[in-house]
Every structure is written in structure tokens, then in C-alpha cells.
Amino acid sequence: MKRVVLIIISLVLLILDNTLMPFLAIRGVYPSLLTIFALSYSIINGYLEGIFIGVLSGMLQDIYFFNGFGLNSLCNMIICLIGAKIGENIFKEKALIPFISTFALSILKDVMIFAILFIMKKKINYFNIPFVAIYNMVISIFIYKRVYKLSQKSYMKSDWNF
């Protein structure tokens, strides 16, 4: 049940990222709800869940990323694994470290994408990287607590047994 819920939430957030978020842009910069959700979920739930949500969110983001298919999957998986490592050493109820982590990991993701696309000789606007990270951090203030509450639900804690 947990995986189905994660897939549905990810699909909804992808739709919101591509339909609603551009209307909330400030000077052409808008946050990625899917990335924020993936980071928050991996910080709370650890490595295996971080790998799953990182690859899932990356694959969904790659649908709309024409310059390098698979690049978001790789970068999201890496930042979600780092987020899971950060989550090992913090009190998950407190939200300060996850906010700061969202900022730093958003910058890391965008820098990795920029570096790989630079090597591939593709052009990308790198001036927006810090602004997207700040916007992601601000939005994560509202998302992290909800993801934490979702992770505490009984249907999100139990695994399928066959």
C-alpha cells in the first residue's frame, strides 16, 4: 500500500509542478514540489525508501526534461541518499535541519545537472540555481511536517507480505 500511495502522490505533485507552479514563479523561478517531497520523504524514512522515491521522482521529472533523459533519476537518487544519511543523525520531529538540507541538496542537484549538461555541451541557465534552492527551502517549511505525519500513518509503515 505504501508504494501505491507514494506513486499517486508523486504523480499528483508532478502534475502540480508542471501546471500550477509556473504561475507562482518569481522572475521565472519556481520550486519543484516533487523534489521537495522526495527529499523530505527520504530524510524521514531512510535509504531504501530514499532510493525508491529518488528514482521514481527522477523518472517522472525526466518525462519533461528533454536535454538528458535519466539525468534527473540519477541526481534525485544521489540527493535522496544523502538526505537519508542526514536523516539518520537528526530528530525527525524537528524541521530546521531538513529545511537547510533541502536548500543544500537542491543546490547540489542543480549543480550536478549543470555539470553533466556542460560536459555534454548543452546550455542551461545556471544563474537561477540559488534562487530555486531558496524557493524550495521556503516551500519545504510547509511540506516537511505533512510528509512526517504521512510517514507516521499505519498504512505507510507496513510492508506487503506475500
From TrEMBL:
Keywords: Cell membrane, Cell shape, Membrane, Transmembrane, Transmembrane helix. The keyword Transmembrane helix applies. It comes from the Bacteria. It is a multi-pass membrane protein. The keyword Cytoplasm does not apply. It is found in: Cell membrane. The chain crosses the membrane at residues 6-26, 33-57, 63-84, 96-120, 126-144. Coiled coil: none annotated. It holds the Pfam family MreD. Belongs to the MreD family. This is Rod shape-determining protein MreD. It comes from Clostridium simiarum. The gene is mreD.
